[in-house]
Amino acid sequence: MKSSFAVVERRAEHAARFFYSHLFWHHPGLRALFPSSPEDMERQRDRLFAALTHVVAHLESGTLLPYLRDLGRDHRKFLVGPEHYAAVGASLLAALARTSGEAWTPDVEKAWTEAYQVIADAMTAGAAASAEPPWWDAEVVRHLQYGEDIGVLTLRPHVPLPYRPGQYVSVSSARVPTTWRTYSLGNAPRPDTTVDLHVSRIEGGRLSTVLVRDVRPGELLRLGAPGGDLVLRREDRPVTLIAAGTGWAPVRAMLEDLVAHPPDQDVRLFVVARDAAHLYDRPLIDGYAASRRWLSVTYITPAPGRHRNQATERLATALGHRGLWREQDVHLSGPAPFVEETAGLLEELGARPDRLFHDAVPASGAARTRPLGFGEWFLDRPDPHWHNPAGRAPRDTG
Ligand SMILES: NC(=O)C1=CN([C@@H]2O[C@H](COP(=O)(O)OP(=O)(O)OC[C@H]3O[C@@H](n4cnc5c(N)ncnc54)[C@H](O)[C@@H]3O)[C@@H](O)[C@H]2O)C=CC1
């Protein structure tokens, strides 16, 4: 298996293209489950094929089976049913056979077939065993737009979401079928079950543009189960919360939790935005700061006339003026390069890496705005960690 895999890796792009051509040729009906735009399909090509090969290459790992079961549970929202696994398996095997050349022997074929069966069995078992709905239908009950690019959508899920403050959900709209993106929630579900989704519009991003500019109250969105590891650790240590852009949403949820259950230790909050207009929750924060002695707040925007990212340099200066980083639990949220840069700085300032919390930063150090070319894929292959099915809230949190 490993020897044929090495050959396939060198020809990954060819294998992935063959895989999808084979799949859609033999099962044209499956095409509708995949994104329709060429860009999203390119991204999908990277993802699915990288995931399949990664998983097969790590079959010995003890954590793989639980991961696959969770992955199967979460794939139900993509309308993946048990019958699809055989079709995908046949096309994967065909792509591997075509790409492996002479390394494809009967023994290798048998090993890959068995390995794929283990994956398919674990994922279908995970899907069948789940008590969760495949997705949550949620009605838009309010839509606020701040400036050109930020939308805060209040949603009422038909069934309450299990959620821990700081987590994100994947979101889909019938206006952009088969496209799912993750966005953070800015609050734990209220007594009326509503939650706020904070969305920053990405230039050319079809779903984010629709969510910020077009979606109206009364519409339904689909939500995947909340996930992510950026949740408050209440371990009786001073807390620093650092948010940039709509990275403010999970920090807002954590701050609300702290306000509801005041901490014994001090909390430092740094809110970074591209300009003052994007500090859209400032009145709320100012209200908290005025009445909570344990909370100190620093707002950071770029100097007048400077690029939005200069705010990050200003933040670095502000962080450098504070001390006692070793004692702090630091929660960081924002654009991937911001998180990476700020986490590095905090470590230099003395923060403990094991007390520095943020969601996974995409491989290659930057949020990818386009699919990887073959050379990049080969030289700097991303870990398939775009989806972390762990870190769910306990079911009884309502
Ligand atoms: N859990 C998390 O980490 C969350 C992350 N996000 C991410 O936060 C981002 C929010 O986007 P916007 O609101 O449009 O933010 P934005 O583009 O307005 O940026 C806000 C600030 O982040 C810093 N920044 C942005 N890009 C940077 C770069 N390349 N290098 C250094 N600093 C940089 C700058 O100081 C900028 O003023 C999205 O990428 C979203 O995926 C959003 C929610 C939660």
Automatic annotation (TrEMBL):
<keyword id="KW-0813">Transport</keyword>
<protein>
    <recommendedName>
        <fullName>nitric oxide dioxygenase</fullName>
        <ecNumber>1.14.12.17</ecNumber>
    </recommendedName>
</protein>
<dbReference type="InterPro" id="IPR017927">
    <property type="entry name" value="FAD-bd_FR_type"/>
</dbReference>
<comment type="similarity">
    <text>In the C-terminal section; belongs to the flavoprotein pyridine nucleotide cytochrome reductase family.</text>
</comment>
<dbReference type="Pfam" id="PF00175">
    <property type="entry name" value="NAD_binding_1"/>
</dbReference>
<dbReference type="InterPro" id="IPR009050">
    <property type="entry name" value="Globin-like_sf"/>
</dbReference>
<keyword id="KW-0411">Iron-sulfur</keyword>
<dbReference type="InterPro" id="IPR017938">
    <property type="entry name" value="Riboflavin_synthase-like_b-brl"/>
</dbReference>
<keyword id="KW-0408">Iron</keyword>
<dbReference type="Pfam" id="PF00042">
    <property type="entry name" value="Globin"/>
</dbReference>
<dbReference type="GO" id="GO:0005344">
    <property type="term" value="F:oxygen carrier activity"/>
</dbReference>
<keyword id="KW-0479">Metal-binding</keyword>
<dbReference type="InterPro" id="IPR050415">
    <property type="entry name" value="MRET"/>
</dbReference>
<keyword id="KW-0349">Heme</keyword>
<dbReference type="GO" id="GO:0019825">
    <property type="term" value="F:oxygen binding"/>
</dbReference>
<dbReference type="InterPro" id="IPR000971">
    <property type="entry name" value="Globin"/>
</dbReference>
<comment type="similarity">
    <text>Belongs to the globin family.</text>
</comment>
<dbReference type="Pfam" id="PF00970">
    <property type="entry name" value="FAD_binding_6"/>
</dbReference>
<dbReference type="GO" id="GO:0008941">
    <property type="term" value="F:nitric oxide dioxygenase NAD(P)H activity"/>
</dbReference>
<feature type="domain" description="Globin">
    <location>
        <begin position="1"/>
        <end position="128"/>
    </location>
</feature>
<keyword id="KW-0521">NADP</keyword>
<keyword id="KW-0561">Oxygen transport</keyword>
<dbReference type="InterPro" id="IPR001433">
    <property type="entry name" value="OxRdtase_FAD/NAD-bd"/>
</dbReference>
<keyword id="KW-0560">Oxidoreductase</keyword>
<dbReference type="GO" id="GO:0051537">
    <property type="term" value="F:2 iron, 2 sulfur cluster binding"/>
</dbReference>
<keyword id="KW-0520">NAD</keyword>
<dbReference type="InterPro" id="IPR008333">
    <property type="entry name" value="Cbr1-like_FAD-bd_dom"/>
</dbReference>
<keyword id="KW-0001">2Fe-2S</keyword>
<feature type="domain" description="FAD-binding FR-type">
    <location>
        <begin position="133"/>
        <end position="233"/>
    </location>
</feature>
<dbReference type="GO" id="GO:0020037">
    <property type="term" value="F:heme binding"/>
</dbReference>
<dbReference type="InterPro" id="IPR039261">
    <property type="entry name" value="FNR_nucleotide-bd"/>
</dbReference>
<dbReference type="InterPro" id="IPR012292">
    <property type="entry name" value="Globin/Proto"/>
</dbReference>
